[in-house]
Amino acid sequence: MEKLIQRAARSGMKTAALKHHGHTGNLKRPDSHPKDSMRHKQAGAFLAAASGSGQLQLEVDTSPDLQELLTFYRYFNPDIIFVEGYKQEHYPKVVLLQSIRDISLLRECSNVTCAVTSISLQEKIDVPCFFRSDDKHYLDFILNEMEVADDNGSLRNHKPTDFC
């Protein structure tokens, strides 16, 4: 397989490889010991994956934009997708304030749902703010913000919801 991948890649083909893990047990972490899928990657595959035991490991030499990544994630039908980073995207955000300098993030980011902080704030901010140690309250708040009424008036989570 590796020689086929090398030959195809050398001839200019955009090569991908998929390995079925037919053994019982979890897939090994790629950094634990070079596995077939990692050797496929090293041989020149831009996309290499291992699948088995109800798991999928994927490594790809590309940097899809957020929309492409969300489309990929939605293929697996999650109820919710949490996204870290992507501060300039339009999705609802929770801003983590770790120092006074981070307060500027509240002005730079749009669609801020709340802030979570480990510092005492001297200035008033325009969004709900929770101490990091108060995880029960901010976790409940964030999850409740994601609920919407369905046609029957019952609350349910967005499907899927993307939260930065």
Describe this structure in words.
With 164 residues, the protein is α/β, with parallel strands linked by helices. It is built from 5 helices and 10 strands. The protein has helices spanning 2-10, 36-43, 66-74, 104-108, 135-145, and strands at 16-20, 47-52, 55-60, 80-82, 93-97, 112-117, 129-131, 147-149, 155-157, 161-163. The strands form 4 sheets. The chain has a 3-stranded mixed beta sheet with strand order 1-2-3, covered by helices on one side. The radius of gyration is 22 Å and the shape is elongated. The two termini are 40 Å apart.
In what range is the share of β-strand residues? 25-35%
The run of helices and strands is HEHEEHEEHEEHEEE
Task: Give the overall silhouette.
Answer: elongated
Radius of gyration: 22 Å
What's the total number of strands?
10
Helix content: 25-40%
Ranges where pLDDT stays below 50 over 5 or more residues in a row are 158-164
Question: Main β-sheet, in a few words?
Answer: 3 strands, mixed
Q: Biggest sheet: strands side by side, in what order?
A: 1-2-3
User: Quick check: average pLDDT?
Assistant: 81
Distance between the termini: 40 Å
The class by helix and strand makeup works out as: alpha/beta
Secondary structure tally, helices: 5
